[in-house]
Write a structure and sequence with these properties.
By secondary structure, the protein is mainly α. The chain is about 90% helix and about 0% strand. It has one domain (about 1-214): Up-down Bundle (Four Helix Bundle (Hemerythrin (Met), subunit A)).
Length: about 210
């Protein structure tokens, strides 16, 4: 019966060793997942927030340029046409980034108001003798001001979402540090279990030490 007890003891120790190894594998998976999340957050901060904020700044500059062009009426057709093409290109780039729900709604409103401003511009530019021309200029000015407010709102969203991503990255780094410490602790446990399961390994290490020292 003694051999059965020895077998059971070896089996239990072996199962313990396998369990610890599986835990190491699981923690390694969590570690890789944290790294992937951190990389995604950093990419999103750059591509979806910093770059987009630059798009918003460019849009604001173009709207200001159009506003001044409509006032001076010097080369107004060329300036307005060029500005509208640039705005369309920037909006397409913006739409290809990751958008929050609030951002999607505000961007849609911005596009609608930009389209309305283009209608006002065309009526003012191509209908010089229109009686309502001065009134339309007032509407267009208000439309430009509204667009600038919406652009400021979109810029604020970039700052808010960027802050959230940074906070999320901090939590991922903290979790990853804990995971790393667990990995080290489990590796130590594996060594202890290994020596328990294979006592002869202790003798091997003792015999190996003088060889290493020499």
């Amino acid at each position: 019966m003694k051999w059965k007890e020895i077998l059971n003891e070896k089996l239990n120790k072996g199962l313990m060793l396998v369990s610890v190894i599986l835990m190491v594998i699981l923690i390694g998976y969590m570690h890789n997942k944290h790294i992937t999340m951190l990389e995604n957050n950093i990419t999103s901060i750059y591509a979806d927030r910093l770059v987009v904020n630059d798009y918003i700044f460019q849009l604001s500059q173009i709207v200001n340029m159009k506003k001044e062009a409509m006032k001076s009426e010097e080369d107004v057709i060329e300036k307005i046409a060029h500005g509208n093409v640039s705005i369309r290109d920037l909006i397409v780039k913006y739409e290809n980034t990751w958008l929050t729900e609030d951002e999607t709604r505000l961007l849609k409103k911005l596009k609608d108001d930009l389209s309305l401003s283009v209608e006002f511009e065309n009526q003012i530019i191509y209908n010089v003798g229109l009686p309502e021309r001065e009134k339309l200029k007032g509407h267009l000015k208000d439309q430009y001001d509204l667009i600038q407010v919406e652009l400021e709102g979109l810029s604020n969203i970039q700052l808010s979402e960027g802050k959230k991503l940074l906070e999320r990255s901090g939590k991922v780094m903290a979790s990853n540090a804990i995971t790393h410490r667990l990995e080290i602790a489990l590796l130590i446990i594996i060594m202890l279990v290994f020596f328990m399961v294979y006592p002869s390994s202790k003798k091997f290490l003792r015999e190996l030490k003088p060889t290493i020292d020499n």
